[in-house]
């Protein structure tokens, strides 16, 4: 996966190459038909993974409490119950760090149990050190810990065998399929498709192939799988129908070609894997992930996936509703001031790019005179811009004009925190943003937000120069690749302070 540094320029990040997204792409008739087909409802992998984590954590906590209650007459420590609760949650965190929770790992037998027991053993080593530092080192406590470890090992093994049985049953019934496309063609793609069909346990819904080559090395049908277009068309195709996985089928020896392809595909909000079936280089099994028996290199993952999406959804809705209630007096006063100063609607609606480059309608308080409005933002607002009303100057400076976007959050079109959505025709150095900066559309791998990392670092407001735009995009990409719940909370906490101290570019 690309390592992103917010101080690194776009040119440095892409090593002198600036991948651009073509705007004149038209899908083939076959690709349009495939994209228009109804998508079969499946059970989200996030739901299965999250459920396993909940059951596993609660089971370990209950086991720990059961052992404690069995010894309650000899254990006299008021901290034991909270200690068990915290330990159970901490074990789940370590299981995630040890990559023991994924659909691929659930399908394995002894491999997942061995990995889980190894992580469980590391956890208990750390727990033993921690309990010693807390003074919980008497013989009774040590007996409790050994009992929890041994019985927990047996419990985890039994649970995982049950999970494997359930996941395999769901897979065979086609309830957990991932919509997948392959980038590549010819004989290598044919071998890959056959290997997937033979061993992938019915969890891959292979939709088609995309290949830039037009000669005999890339036939129109490979192993009964149709070629739907080239890579530019794949990027457009992904905006018309849901995709979960892109598998790049190219030899590792073609390093420049693979790297160029990954840079182009990086803008998509999907998992990207590089097939290792053609590689002569044999690494340890832990170096790969697997689709069936086919080894894969993980090149990129969805930026925010699984239960992080659930957290993000809850965070957005709770913060948006709370903010609307607390800020309603300010919003009502702003609406009255706008209506009193100039004729026209209170709200300004503008089309912008949302998640996966989809067009959405963004709500803002109107800050310009109606007859001088610029819905496409073809001309950026500058200091003392005569198009902006007096009320407009104040609400733009304080970002009050953005508050109606809380309704966009409730509609699911925006997040509270994320890359700011830009107007379609906004320009820097007389170039549309997407043409000015390579990798620009990678910002749309997550939902855009009302505030973001760029904004709290002073890169809000006017982006008239290439440097300003690059800084904003760099910070947006850094946020996407390094997202955590704590980062969202930090950005939200810092936003009011940045509005007061870093608003020199907001007009």
How would you sum up this structure, described in words?
There is one protein chain. Helix content is 47%, strand content 12%. The protein has an 8-stranded mixed sheet with strand order 3-4-2-1-5-6-8-7. A two-stranded antiparallel sheet has the order 9-10. A two-stranded parallel sheet has the order 11-14. Helix 3 packs antiparallel against helix 7 (139-172). It is built from 17 helices and 14 strands. It has 3 domains: 12-40 and 177-300, NAD(P)-binding Rossmann-like Domain (Rossmann fold, 3-Layer(aba) Sandwich); 45-172, no CATH class; 307-501, no CATH class.
Give structural attributes:
alpha/beta, Rossmann fold, eight-stranded mixed sheet, 12% strand
Tell me briefly what this model is:
The protein is of the alpha/beta class. It has helices spanning 10-13, 29-36, 45-70, 80-97, 103-106, 110-133, 139-172, 186-199, 231-237, 255-265, 307-341, 390-397, 405-410, 433-436, 453-456, 466-481, 485-501; strands at residues 178-183, 204-210, 221-222, 225-229, 245-248, 271-275, 289-291, 294-300, 347-353, 359-365, 415-417, 427-428, 431-432, 449-451. The strands form 4 sheets. It has an 8-stranded mixed beta sheet. A two-stranded antiparallel sheet has the order 9-10. Strands 11-14 form a two-stranded parallel ribbon.
> What oligomerization state is this entry in?
single chain
Q: Give the helix level as a range of percent.
A: 40-55%
> What radius of gyration results from the CA coordinates?
27 Å
The number of distinct structural domains comes to: 3
Average pLDDT score: 82
**Largest sheet, strands/sense/barrel:** 8 strands, mixed
- The geometry reads as flat
Question: Could you name the ranges where pLDDT drops below 50 across 5 or more consecutive residues?
Answer: 1-18
Q: How do the strands line up in the largest sheet?
A: 3-4-2-1-5-6-8-7
Distance between the termini: 37 Å
Number of strands: 14
Structural class: alpha/beta
Strand content: 5-15%
Helix tally equals 17
């Amino acid at each position: 996966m690309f390592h992103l540094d917010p101080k690194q320029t776009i040119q440095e990040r892409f090593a002198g190459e600036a991948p651009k997204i073509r705007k004149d792409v038209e899908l083939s008739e076959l690709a349009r038909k495939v994209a228009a087909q109804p998508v079969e409802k499946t059970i989200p992998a996030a739901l299965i993974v999250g459920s396993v984590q909940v059951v596993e954590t609660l089971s370990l906590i209950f086991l720990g409490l059961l052992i404690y209650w069995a010894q309650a007459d000899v254990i006299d420590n008021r901290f034991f119950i909270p200690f068990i609760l915290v330990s159970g949650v901490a074990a789940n965190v370590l299981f995630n760090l040890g990559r023991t929770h994924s659909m691929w790992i659930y399908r394995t037998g002894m491999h997942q149990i061995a990995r889980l027991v190894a992580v469980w053993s590391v956890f208990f080593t750390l727990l033993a050190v921690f309990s010693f530092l807390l003074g919980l080192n008497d013989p009774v406590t040590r007996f409790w810990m050994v009992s929890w470890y041994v019985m927990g090992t047996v419990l985890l093994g039994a649970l995982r065998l049950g999970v494997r049985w359930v996941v395999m049953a769901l897979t065979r019934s086609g309830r957990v399929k991932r919509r997948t496309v392959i980038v590549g063609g010819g004989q290598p793609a044919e071998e890959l498709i056959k290997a997937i069909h033979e061993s992938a346990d019915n969890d891959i819904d292979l939709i088609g192939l995309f290949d830039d080559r037009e000669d005999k090395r890339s036939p129109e049908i490979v192993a009964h799988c149709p070629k739907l277009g080239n890579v530019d068309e794949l990027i457009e195709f992904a905006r018309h129908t849901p995709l979960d996985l892109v598998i790049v089928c190219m030899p590792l020896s073609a390093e420049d070609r693979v790297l160029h392809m990954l840079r182009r595909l990086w803008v998509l909000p999907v998992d990207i894997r590089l097939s290792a079936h053609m590689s002569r280089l044999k690494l340890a099994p832990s170096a790969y992930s697997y689709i069936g028996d086919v080894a894969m290199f993980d090149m990129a993952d969805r930026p925010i996936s699984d239960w992080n999406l659930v957290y993000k959804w809850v965070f957005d809705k709770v913060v948006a509703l709370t903010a609307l209630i607390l800020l309603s007096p300010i919003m009502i006063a702003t609406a009255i001031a706008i209506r009193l100063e100039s004729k026209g609607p209170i709200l300004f609606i503008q089309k912008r790019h949302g998640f996966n480059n989809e067009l959405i309608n963004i709500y803002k308080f109107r800050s310009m005179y109606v007859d001088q409005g610029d819905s496409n933002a073809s001309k950026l607002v500058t200091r003392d811009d005569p198009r902006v009303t007096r009320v407009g100057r104040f609400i733009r400076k304080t970002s009050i004009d953005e508050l109606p976007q809380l309704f966009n959050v409730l509609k699911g079109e925006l997040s509270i925190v994320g890359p700011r959505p830009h107007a379609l025709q906004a320009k820097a150095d007389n170039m549309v943003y997407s043409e000015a900066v390579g990798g620009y559309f990678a910002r749309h791998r997550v939902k855009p937000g009302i505030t973001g990392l760029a904004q709290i670092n002073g890169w809000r407001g006017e982006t008239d120069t290439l440097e300003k735009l690059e800084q904003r995009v760099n910070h947006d990409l850094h946020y996407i690749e390094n997202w955590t719940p704590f980062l969202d909370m930090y950005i939200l906490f810092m936003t009011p302070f940045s509005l007061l101290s870093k608003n020199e570019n907001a007009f």
